[in-house]
Amino acid sequence: MRDVLTLSEYLGYVKRYHPIVKQANLTINKSAAKLLKARGAFDPKIEIDFDKKRFKENHYYTHLNGSFKIPTWYGIALKANFEQNEGLYLNPENQGSINGLYTAGIEISLARGLLTNNRMTTLKQAKLFLNQAKEEQQIAVNKILYNASLSYFKWLKSYHEKRVFDSFLNNAKLRFKGTKRAYEEGAKPAIDTLEAGITLNSRRLNLEKARIQLVQSSLELSTYLWLNENTPIELKETIIPDLKTFDTIDRTFNIALFHDENFDIEQHPKIKALGFKIKSLAVNRRLKMNNLLPKVDVQYQFISPNSMQ
Questions:
Q1: What is the 3-state secondary structure (H, E, C) of 210-252?
Q2: What SS3 class is residue 137?
């Protein structure tokens, strides 16, 4: 019994298991990881510095310094700090309130780094790279599906040709058998049997060529068939193409989409990928122009021995 492999089922296997498709998905994951890393530059940062010294029951000193910083989208950062020092041998500059000193402040870049900076540029580019990777992944998948579709149609053509030459051979056998019988009965000359025999041998040769072509196209088709863990599979001889492929091809390729009045060529993955690349270059250009500005940073800090003040 013959099993039918439809074009839709075949392309489904290709899209799900082909190594290049998986590799394209890994590219998206890599870009997503870079985006996550870029977002981390805007996470609050906590730093704690602690130092202590005791010798022979003498408390020389204890230094505690904790800071909290929140970077914002533009060149503005919010800061908070707590410092507490105690002990018998403190430097005068470290002496302060027994309860510690609380500091709150703000840092602003007035020129370079205000409207754009390395953090902002890295995050913007990471977002654009992720979008670009998604479009390039779609391009890679489409290319694989296109080549796989060509292999399927080549396989279908070879199968049709093999069936045709099977029919030709059967007809040639019947003609040779009839011509030979007519010759034996004296109704036809011997030359007719020779001609029928030559035609029969020609049909056999054509059928053999068609079989070889079918095997080759089947092997080519198998190069696009994979399973989990990058395991290649070979098409069995009992599997045949769908002879009604052309009745369902419009639905398989969603041809109706191209006749939709809302169809926009600007949504093509290649055009969108180039658009994201251009935007990324523009972001990088703005950063380089901003780096030509002078560096002017302003800080304001409020110090209090009481956290409630």
A1: HHHHHHHHHHHHHCCCEEHHHEECCCCCCEEECCCHHHHHHHH
A2: helix
In which residue are the tokens 């009839």 written?
Answer: 178
Query: d(Cα 41, Cα 287) in Å, to the nearest integer?
Result: 17
Name 136's Cβ contacts closer than 8 Å, sequence gap at least 6. 24, 27, 269, 273
Report domain extents, the chain. 3-37+119-168+200-286, 44-116+294-304
| Model confidence pLDDT, tens digit, residues 254-288 | 765 566 667 677 888 899 999 999 999 999 999 99
Kindly report the length of the chain. Answer: 309
**Residue 197 CB-half CA count within 13 A:** 8
What is the token pair recorded at 131?
């979008």
Predicted TM-score (pTM) of the model is 0.72
How big, in percent rounded to 5, are the helix, strand and coil portions of the chain?
A: 60, 20, 20
